[in-house]
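Name: Phosphoribosylformylglycinamidine synthase subunit PurS
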Amino acid sequence: MGRIVVEVMPKPEILDPQGKAVVGSLPRLGFEQFTAVRQGRRFELTVEGEVTEADLAAAREAADKLLSNPIIEDVVSVRAEEA
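Structure predicted for Phosphoribosylformylglycinamidine synthase subunit PurS:
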């Protein structure tokens, strides 16, 4: 079985309350080096057999039409994942 990973992130101009909460908590836990956090989403799509270019193309289309909201999100990655 093959797996395709789709990653979706809020557009840079969209507020990210989850990311803001996390970045505010990091220094309290001793993580001073991080200055920003953006919270995204990850989808894992499974296909029979090995991932083909046609599967990746279909995953890109699904990402644009269903897995993301193009008004507030960007699809940042559609890739086959190694087994």
